[in-house]
Every structure is written in structure tokens, then in C-alpha cells.
């Protein structure tokens, strides 16, 4: 029987009390984050936010727990915006929505700095079911401006090596999710698509964990999907909220990994899906993919939940967790 795993994709909204506290502390100065001198009070506020995020995921009943990335003001660009070799440029739009981040301008060699590993080490003290989240290499390169490497392919390789170095320093994690929205929003050209998959391989090789590649905001280009199937990852993720028809076509026409991540909860809509609704969506996917039998299905929002009010975030997590029980019970009855 298929194993159902309820989880989320990181980049959680700040708990309400943390949002207020951080707003008051130095006006939540982002420059303090960049040079590593965020100050004890700010660091303590983020520590408490992390503890709240982990505890609330556990209370919701998720099977995998993310650190939550409360410090990631610049969304998936964060691992670069805090790097010593990077200057932050102007404010740019984060894909097709009303969120923004500061453009990371890479002016020197990208070497691993352990920033994400330190966050995960702190979270590892709070849970045994830890899921790491990183931007995928193609996405992180796409979100940045290169003023050092001088060539798209060299830059992508450098970003891949940087992320692989970060992953090598991780504590033990159950799952590593690589978020690759740019594979959908700005598909790579011929040749670069294969290179992006090779960069994913390098990162996956650094962790002893299940590796999931998830691409929000739509469906993969067919060639991109084909190259991802060649990558050494355990699961591909499909955004069924943004484009269920094309994603199901890809699965049925070209196959997929033995495990999959299904984005079945709308991360940008405050309407909370019931557990029954989510379970029905899972059953519908299984019915629409009759030649494919998944070993593990990760049930997730279609993208990060950063955009939602905190109470809505909590409610959607609880529905996801409850849906795994509903779907499992339905499968047992049908069997």
C-alpha cells in the first residue's frame, strides 16, 4: 500500500508574536542579517519563532517537520543574500505574485558558509523527523545576478557546488526538498536543462536522506521533466493546484519516480481545504494514473505557505495531516 507522508515546503509565515517582536527590534534591519551581526535580541526572536513553527507542525500532526526559515526574508534567494561574496541589489518581484526579494549580486567565489546547516542543527534539537529545504540550483542561479563567473553555465555549476557544500554540512535529516520553481516559471534552454539536473545530482549525493525536487507554479516542460527523471532523486513534485492536467499528462506519458510529491493544497488561498477534500484529490490522482503505482506520496501545499495568515497556515497543515489518515482508511476499505 502507498505510504502517505504529510509535510510542507518550508518558508512558513512568521508566527504573529514573532512578526510583531521582530518589527519592533531595530525595525527588523535586514542589513544586520547580511553581515551576520543581527544581535542577540534579534537572534533570540528568530530562535523562538523556530521553536513555535516546529511545535505547531508537530501539533498539526505532520510526518516531516521543516525548520520553517523564519530568517529567510528574501525567500529562496536567502542563502545568497547572506553570503560574504554577495551584495544585495534592488527589490525585484518574486515570480508572479506581490512578494518581493532583494536581488543577490554575486561578486566573488561562492563557498559554503554553513548558514542553512546552522539553522537545521538548531531544529534538529527539536524533532527527529526533520526535513531540510533548499532552493534548487537552477532556481537560485535564476534569482541571482552574476558579476563574477561571467557565463551562465559556469555560474550554474558554481551555485550547484555551493549548495552541495551547504548540504554536506547538514545534520541528519529524513528528507531534503529542493524547490525549483524556475524550472517551470523560466524553463532552461537546451543543454542547461541537463546541466541543472546534474547540479541537483551533486546536491543529492551529499545527504543520506530522501531527496525530493518540487517545482511550484505550473508544470514542467517535457524535456526538463525527462532530464529530472534521469537525476538521482527519490521523488519529483507536481503542482496540481496550478496545472493538474499537464502534470498528469507528464506522469502518464513519460512516467515518474517511484515516490512523488503532490501539491494538493492551495498555498495562496485562505480557504482551508477539508481533510476529506484532500483525500479525494489523492484518490483522484491515483485513478487518473492507472499504470503508475506510487510507493510514497508526499502530500504538500502546491508552494510555500509564506503568503498566508498564520492561523490559516496552521489550519491547512492540520488538514494535510488528517488527510493522510482519511486516504489511508479509504485505501484499506477499497483493498
Helix content: 40-55%
What's the total number of strands? 11
Put simply, the count of helices is 13
Unreliable segments (pLDDT under 50, ≥5 consecutive)?
Answer: 28-37
Report on the biggest sheet.
8 strands, parallel
What series of H and E elements makes up the topology? EHHHEHEEHEHEHEHHEHEHEHEH
Q: So what's the overall shape?
A: globular
The class by helix and strand makeup works out as alpha/beta
Beginning-to-end CA distance, first to last residue: 9 Å
Radius of gyration: 19 Å
- Beta-strand residue percentage: 15-25%
Q: Give the strand order of the largest sheet, numbering strands 1, 2, ... along the chain.
A: 1-11-10-9-8-7-5-2
Mean pLDDT comes to: 92
Notes on the protein architecture:
The protein is α/β, with parallel strands linked by helices and 335 residues long. Helix content is 44%, strand content 17%. It has 13 helices and 11 strands. The strands form 2 sheets. The chain has an 8-stranded parallel beta sheet. A 3-stranded mixed beta sheet has the order 3-4-6. Helix 1 (16-24) packs antiparallel against helix 3 (40-60) and helix 3 (40-60) runs parallel beside helix 13. The longest helix is centred in the C-terminal third of the chain and has 25 residues, at 310-334. The radius of gyration is 19 Å and the shape is globular. 50% of the residues are buried. Mean pLDDT is 92; it is low at 28-37.
Q: Topology of this structure?
A:
Elements: E1 3-6, H1 16-24, H2 30-34, H3 40-60, E2 65-66, H4 78-81, E3 86-93, E4 100-106, H5 115-124, E5 130-135, H6 137-143, E6 145-146, H7 152-168, E7 175-179, H8 182-185, H9 192-204, E8 210-215, H10 222-230, E9 235-239, H11 244-254, E10 259-265, H12 275-288, E11 296-301, H13 310-334
Parallel strand pairs: 1-11, 2-5, 4-6, 5-7, 7-8, 8-9, 9-10, 10-11
Antiparallel strand pairs: 3-4
